Amino acid sequence: MTILRVPFHQDRRLPDESLPLDAAAVTIEPALPDGTVWERLTALHTAVAERVAREVVPTVVSGDCLVALGTLAGVQRAGIRPGLVWFDAHGDVHTLDTTTSGYLGGLALRLALGAHADLVAGPLGLRPVPVEHTLLVGARDLDRPEVDYLASGNAPATRAVGDLGELPDGPLVLHVDLDVIDAGELPGLRFPAPGGPSSGAVRAAIQHVLSTGRVVAVNIACPWHEAPDPAAQAARTNLLANLAS
């Protein structure tokens, strides 16, 4: 399995130590153009898509959830129409009309489902994933617009980490935002969400999805600040070694 390191949080290059991976990981680091954040993200995600399309079951590790759009697009460029299993403490189903923070990572899943296609799907060549082929797992920190959307009947199904139930049919892209793990176990997260599952429970759920033999790409988001101390950095290194292998 090829591990692809994308050392970016949105369109900002991260220090190398932000993603503590084995030296064999392949780094994707395109020169981003001047322009809007959407133009810069399109360039980054296009580079990810081009590389993912050439790999067999790659694992993509980055600093935020938006890179999952490039992973999805790459799988599609390889001729596969995957469903999506999305582990996240947050819904990531805001739109530009509902977000109050303006944080673009909070739109990531909704963008994969086709929101703001003129900004994302069109320029990237991404075919939106149908909601009936999408599963949101572990979301517990939801804003009111996200709650309303997820209850609308035209949204992905939601599940707890320990009770995945039936997965979408066909090939799958597995996305894991590491903040799905309880914030008390993983210090330094940008958007910590208490009351979550342990890393062991998350690993078990991930293995359940992988055991189907239908996962065609894994996307891991590490939305954390610089590690507060060497022990935290060691914990991150160990966690990624267990997940990205």
TrEMBL record:
InterPro entries, per the entry: Ureohydrolase, Ureohydrolase_dom_sf
Recorded family membership: Belongs to the arginase family.
Gene3D superfamilies membership: Ureohydrolase domain (3.40.800.10)
Keyword terms of this UniProt record: Hydrolase, Manganese, Metal-binding
Superkingdom of this protein's organism: Bacteria
Annotated protein name in UniProt: Arginase
KW Amino-acid biosynthesis (keyword) present: no
Taxonomic lineage: Bacteria, Bacillati, Actinomycetota, Actinomycetes, Micromonosporales
